[in-house]
Amino acid sequence: MCKSVTTGEWKKVFYEKMEEAKPADSWDLIIDPNLKHNVLAPGWKQYLELHASGRFHCSWCWHTWQSPHVVILFHMYLDRAQRAGSVRMRVFKQLCYECGTAHLDESSMLEENIESLVDNLITSLREQCYGEHGGQYRIHVASRQDHRRHRGEFCEACQEGIVHWKPSEKLLEEEATTYTFSRAPSPTKPQAEGGSGCNFCSIPWCLFWATVLLLIIYLQFSFRSSV
Question: Are 3 and 110 contacting, i.e. CB atoms less than 8 angstroms apart?
Fold first, then answer.
């Protein structure tokens, strides 16, 4: 059974893996909600995780939702002289689309995802801070094309200009098909016979109105004859 990973567990996994990767250096992990994309102090490096999977919980209406498009920003710095490094991390939030409140809600990562997320962070850290190459990034299931449209107006990362989602070809084809069949018929072309609308100029309707007219004439003559 999977469980959510707290901030303390984030640090625990990171420290354990960094102890294995770089036992001679001391590294720290700091949660920084004010971290900005592409705004770096001198000597700092950046790694952006674009397709993490997380669960959100609205603190106002208690609505919960799963998202495969959680963005996590990391800034990294290594002081080689002190053999100490620091990582600052920001998990971008999302708005609840059920109640429409302006309160941004935090996501909780699942235990089975935290290992690969930290592995990718350390791979980027070794490349950018230590100049090592040959590491492999772990591909998340969430990084595969998703056929549901991402609601960027509710995403903090999208609002700050981070492009991390684009519709798949299948989704674009489905939307194009939906648009084609939902458009109103052209005024210069008659509606197809199999359409759902009613054509009052069709033969059945003409016969119906002719019958009604004849019935009215018959009733009028019958009434005059009786008088």
Answer: yes
How many angstroms separate the CA atoms of 46 and 73, rounded? 8
Expressed in percent and rounded to 5, the helix, strand and coil fractions of the chain are 35, 25, 40
DSSP 167-198: --HHHHHHHHHHHHHHSPPPTTSPPPTTSSS-
Which residues neighbour 52 within 8 Å (Cβ) at sequence distance 6 or greater? 70, 71, 72, 91, 109, 113, 117, 140, 142
Instruction: Tell me how far apart the alpha carbons of residues 140 and 143 are, in angstroms, rounded to a whole number.
Output: 5
Write out pLDDT tens, residues 22-77. 999 999 999 999 999 999 999 999 999 988 888 888 888 888 888 888 899 999 99
Q: CA-CA distance, 222 to 21, in Å (whole number)?
A: 105
| Percent with pLDDT over 70 in the chain | 69
pLDDT of residue 113: 81
Contact call for residues 64 and 58 (beta carbons, < 8 A): yes
CA-CA distance, 87 to 46, in Å (whole number)? 9
* Rounded Cα distance, 71 and 53, in Å: 9
Which comes out higher in pLDDT, residue 81 or 183?
A: 81
pTM above threshold 0.70: no
